[in-house]
Design goal:
38% helix, single chain, glutarate-semialdehyde dehydrogenase (NADP+) activity, alpha/beta, Aldehyde Dehydrogenase, Chain A, domain 2, 7-stranded mixed β-sheet, Succinate-semialdehyde dehydrogenase/glutarate-semialdehyde dehydrogenase, succinate-semialdehyde dehydrogenase (NAD+) activity, 22 strands, 478 residues
């Protein structure tokens, strides 16, 4: 069963009703309408800012121990409801239930970790040049009211990254979650308030994305912006934030390179990379995106990856036998078709897949593309779908040059046993996160973020909490 959808403003839960603008939420596997999502009015957006502003002083002054207890209770409520919320996620986003539960587990662990890390917002004492006459204290304080914007591909994890860190730091926050996948954000907001979060500390709004973002970012009382989404939209939001000199954290597009060297543990690399590539139908910002395989393994890798792609079972994510669900919407299907057409025009070989599957739902076949040169879009632009492009390389320097051939720099991966290759990948890949012989680069306790056109700032780890804190120096004379 799907959930009741609502806005949350100053502790009030507001559903759809006569005269209110709303939009349908659809199941991408079937096209069925799951529910009607209410939009916030301009007046309600202003009310959300006012409520967050009123609540800020009290929440910032609340002892970190008490804030921690609320976040830990929230995590417990979500853990008790994980099966029901996972089903909501699968219905509205399409990913298989096992993946949905995995995402929710990660989100719950983030709440738990941030609940503890929020108790450690330490300052420091700077040794004085005039001991006994002058003292310097460095204080860490919450930045203020925050506006957070999250996408549709991870509808629980990305809201929790922002909500959990902001609240743990003592900030109040207004969340504008995705209108395409709102159900998980609704359940998270419900759990926060059931756990005892005071009214106004966390609000949830929906509407026309451009209208909501412009209204919230322009509000003088909003002092911090956090966004996860595409690079073009991120640049636009940065420009809006710059008008008010507001702090931003931007987790933008990725186009992760993968280097598979001749000395890699081939079977382990193949299994890990194909599983990661087709997870969430490739709709993952850190998904391995551009595959560069040593020429001695290239043909074998292409054939084996295509065999694994053909073996994947597509279907409604509620089916426990389903291994890959639908794409999120018709736009993504059209984008995949455009990438395949461009690859064919560029002389690449479509080794497996390459087509929409069926007439119902947004299914696209897991696809492998073999190319001899990086002059097709798949090696320039982020695909964000279930297409695995492979190209051969000969030398280490060639591999690094190919990997660094885009402006994006979120994640990168290398599979090798040689210490020199490992060191090169770690130090020479221009990315914010590197996985060597692993794709496990995202945990609650580690920083998550990119460089270049993949944005700046980190979520997760102590760095994720720092993003919501500002530094104050207090110099005290005797």
């Amino acid at each position: 069963m799907y959930t009741e959808l609502f806005l949350c403003i100053d502790g009030r839960f507001i559903g759809s009703g006569p005269g209110r603008t709303s939009e349908p939420v659809e199941n991408p596997a079937t096209g069925a309408v799951l529910g009607e999502l209410p939009h916030a009015t301009t007046a309600e957006l202003d009310e959300a800012v006012a409520a967050a502003t009123r609540a800020f002083a009290g929440w910032a002054a609340t002892a970190p121990f008490e804030r921690s207890a609320i976040l830990r209770r929230t995590a417990g409520i979500l853990r008790d409801r994980i099966d029901a919320i996972a089903a909501i996620m699968t219905l509205e986003q399409g990913k298989p239930l096992a993946e949905a539960k995995g995402e929710l587990t990660h989100a719950i662990e983030l709440f738990e970790w941030l609940a503890e890390e929020g108790r450690r917002t330490y300052g420091r004492v700077v040794p004085s040049r005039a001991p006994g006459a002058l003292e310097h204290l460095v204080l860490r304080e919450p930045v203020g009211v925050c506006a957070a914007f999250t996408p549709w591909n991870f509808p629980a994890l990305t809201p929790v990254r922002k909500l959990g860190a902001a609240l743990a730091a003592g900030c109040t926050v207004i969340l504008k979650a995705s209108e395409e996948t709102p159900g998980c954000a609704v359940e998270i907001m419900r759990a926060l308030h059931e756990a005892g979060l005071p009214a106004g500390c966390a609000q949830l709004v929906f509407g026309v994305p451009a209208d909501v973002s412009e209204r919230l970012i322009a509000a003088p009382d909003v002092r911090k912006i956090s966004f996860t989404g595409s690079t073009p939209v991120g640049k636009h939001l940065m420009a809006l934030a710059a008008a008010g000199a507001k702090r931003t954290t931007m987790e933008l597009g990725g186009n992760a390179p993968v280097l598979v060297f001749s000395d890699a543990d081939y079977d382990a690399a193949l299994a890990a990379l194909t599983a990661a590539k087709f997870r969430n139908a490739g709709q993952v910002c850190v998904s391995p995106a551009r595959f560069f395989v040593h020429e001695s393994l290239y043909q074998r890798f292409v054939a084996d990856a295509a065999a694994r792609a053909r073996a994947l079972r597509l279907g409604d994510g509620l089916d426990p036998q389903s291994q890959m669900g639908p794409l999120a919407n018709a736009r993504r299907v059209e984008a995949m078709e455009a990438f395949v057409a461009d690859a064919e025009r560029g002389g690449a070989r479509i080794v497996g897949g390459g087509r929409r599957r069926g007439d119902t739902g947004m299914f696209f076949e897991p696809t492998v593309v073999a190319a001899d040169a990086p002059d097709i879009r798949l090696f320039r632009d982020e695909c964000f779908g279930p297409i695995l492009p492979v190209m051969p390389f000969g030398t280490l320097d060639e591999a690094i040059e190919l990997a660094n051939g885009t402006a994006a720099g979120l994640a990168g991966y290398a599979f090798t046993q040689a210490i020199g290759n490992r060191q090169a990948a770690m130090h020479r890949l221009r990315v914010g996160m590197v996985g060597v012989n692993t794709l496990a680069i995202s945990t609650a306790e580690t920083p998550f973020g990119g460089v270049g056109e993949s944005g700046f700032g980190s979520e997760g780890g102590s760095e994720g909490l720092d993003a919501y804190l500002q530094t104050k120096l207090a110099s005290i004379a005797a």
